């Protein structure tokens, strides 16, 4: 099998009813457009998500399945999927089906016309389909983050992103880092672009987070990322 050009990484925890529809949508969006693989990372689900994924491998040759032997969180699942990926570019999706895989070709098109210094294309949910309280909390968090980090990104919480694998693996790793990718990429010297994308209602399962949990964790992480940016040093290197 030839090496894929794109790896679609999807972290999941207790999403058994969302797995099959989302895999089907990814295949429909990308098959015939680009050589790709799908890397699902099951974060030790307590339902039969893993069994559903393993059964889908029989009919979807692009699908690979990784399994955490203990629950480790979304950032770790994303990173482990990226480490296992075989393609030089990564697309990520949340496993709840709210991201639309049909937006991945749009992001690939944006990459085709962007300067090589752009290493991250971040989804921007211009028409959020979450509850009013969740949208308000996200708006508040984005405003604080933008003021502190100056990352010029309207929506860092969107799960659909396209980025270079090598650039991601060069970033400092910490839990919840996936929420700060634009700022971390910019800290590393790369440019980022926000791409308007579709957003959908969750049709099955339940959210794994609440607004209070997001806020408490986010404040601590935000201070840490601000410290990383303040302490960063970059210089061009020449081999002589």
Automatic annotation (TrEMBL):
| Domain Glycosyltransferase 2-like intervals | 7-168
User: Is Transmembrane a UniProt keyword of this protein?
Assistant: yes
What CDD domains does its record include?
DPM_DPG-synthase_like
Q: Which domain of life is it from?
A: Bacteria
One GO cellular-component annotation of the UniProt record comes to: plasma membrane
The cross-references to Pfam families, in alphabetical order and at most eight, read: Glycos_transf_2 (PF00535)
Q: Does the keyword RNA-binding apply?
A: no
Alphabetized GO MF terms:
undecaprenyl-phosphate 4-deoxy-4-formamido-L-arabinose transferase activity
Keyword annotations of the record: Cell membrane, Glycosyltransferase, Lipopolysaccharide biosynthesis, Membrane, Transferase, Transmembrane, Transmembrane helix
Q: Cross-referenced InterPro entries, in alphabetical order?
A: Glyco_trans_2-like, Glycosyltransferase_2, Nucleotide-diphossugar_trans
Question: Which GO biological process annotations does it have?
Answer: lipopolysaccharide biosynthetic process
Protein name, per record: Dolichol-phosphate mannosyltransferase
Source taxonomy: Bacteria, Pseudomonadati, Pseudomonadota, Gammaproteobacteria, Lysobacterales
């Amino acid at each position: 099998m030839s090496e894929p050009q794109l790896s679609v990484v999807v972290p999941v925890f207790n999403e058994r009813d969302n797995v099959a529809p989302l895999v089907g949508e990814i295949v429909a969006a990308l098959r015939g457009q680009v050589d790709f693989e799908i890397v699902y990372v099951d974060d030790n689900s307590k339902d039969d998500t893993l069994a559903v994924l393993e059964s889908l491998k029989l009919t979807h040759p692009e699908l690979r399945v990784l399994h955490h032997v203990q629950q480790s969180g979304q950032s770790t699942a994303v990173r482990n999927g990226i480490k296992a990926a075989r393609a030089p570019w990564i697309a990520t999706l949340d496993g709840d089906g709210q991201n639309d895989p049909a937006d991945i070709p749009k992001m690939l098109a944006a990459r085709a016309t962007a300067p090589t210094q752009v290493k991250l294309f971040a989804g921007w949910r211009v028409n959020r389909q979450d509850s009013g309280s969740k949208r308000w909390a996200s708006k508040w968090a984005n405003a604080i983050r933008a003021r502190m980090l100056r990352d010029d990104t309207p929506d860092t919480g969107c799960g659909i992103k396209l980025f270079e694998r090598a650039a991601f693996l060069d970033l400092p790793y910490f839990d919840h880092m996936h929420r700060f990718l634009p700022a971390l990429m910019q800290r590393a010297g790369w440019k980022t672009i926000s791409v308007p994308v579709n957003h959908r209602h969750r049709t099955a399962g339940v959210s794994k987070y609440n607004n209070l949990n997001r806020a408490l964790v986010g404040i601590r992480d935000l201070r840490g990322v601000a410290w990383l940016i303040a302490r960063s040093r970059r210089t061009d290197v020449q081999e002589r």
